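Example (one chain per record):
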Amino acid sequence: MPAVLIACSHGQSTSNRGESTSESTRLLAQHPARGLKPGALVVTPELAVRAIAIDRRYLVWVDGPLYAENRPTSLRQRDLATGRTITLAHDVDPGFGIASTTHWVVYAVSPAGRTLLVAVRHDGSSRRVLSGSLAAPVAARGERIAWAELRDEGAQRVVVQNMADGNEWTAATMQRCEQHGCYRIDTVALAARGVVFDLGAIGPQPSFVVRRAFSQSRPARVALRNDPQPDLVPFSEGALYYWFSRGWFRWDFGWKRPRRLNLPDEPRQTLLRREGTVSFWLQRSGCSTMLRTHTNGTDAATTLRSVRSLAHAGMDTCVHLNALEWTGRQPVTAWTIIPPTSEERHEDTGLVGVILAERPLR
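Predicted structure:
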C-alpha cells in the first residue's frame, strides 16, 4: 500500500492551508458574467480545436492539426466582451489541458522530453513556469488549478495553486515506487471542497483513488483491486470514478466511504463530468459522437445536425466531441467535423473545428 505523505504548504501558513467553505464557493463562482448566446463561438477551417477553457471574460482554446505533423498548435484567446482574438503561444501540448482564470492562462509545452506547465497573463505578459515535470493533465475550478508532477528524487506530488493570490498548497507527496510496487498519477480533478487524484498500479497490486479536502490535514484513499487505470472524471462534490467490472462510484467530501451509482455501463456511453445534479455523457453513433446531458430527470442531446450546419458541413461528415467546459450556467463544447474519407486516411482535408455554446441548463 503506497504511503501518501503530507508535505508542508508553500506560500501560505498551515492555518491557511484550505479556505473556508464560503471561500471555496466564492472561488468556484468565477464564471462568465453573462450567459452566452447558444451557437458557434469559433469556427476553425482546416484546424481541430483540441482543448478549451473559459472564465468570466475570456474563451481560450488550442487549435492545430488532427493528423498532420508539420503544422504547429496554437493557444488562442478571445475576449467575450469585445470579440478581440489574440495568439498567446505556439507548440502547446493539448494533451495536458489548459486553464483560464481571472488573470492567468495556464498551458503545457513539451520540449526535450519534459512537459512544462506554464502560466501567462491574458495580455501575454509575465510568462512563468509553474512546474518543470508535469505528470498528468492540469485541472481547474474557479481561481484554483491543480496538477501532478514528478520530482527528481523519485517522488511525485499533487499541487493546488490559487491563481488569484499565488498561494500554493502541496496536497500529497509520495514515492513512485516502494516495496508493494510502482504507481503513476493519471488524473487530477478539483472539486469545490478539495482535490482528487488516482494512483494507477503498475503491476498486480491495487490502485487507489485519493482525495484531500482543503480543510483536512491528510489525504484519504480507497483501494481498487484489479484495475490498473481507474477512470476518474471531474465532479463538483468529490471523487467520481469507474472501477473496472464494478461500475461507477461517487465519494463526496463529507462521506466516509464511496457509494456505488446505478448508472449505465455499456460501451457506447461514457460519463465525462458531473456538476451538482448535471451529468454529461459522451455517446457514440456510427463514426460520430454526441453530448448527452442529464439533469433533474430530463435528458437532452446535442444534435449532430446542428453542429454540422454551424460548420457548413455535409450530412455525411463525422462529428467528434473534443472538449467540454462548464460555465456554471451552460456547457461550452469543442467539435471536429471531418469527412469519413479523410478520417480513414488520417488526413486533415476538409476538417473544420467548432466551439459551441450550448443551451443554458440553469
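Caption: The two ends are 43 Å apart (CA to CA).
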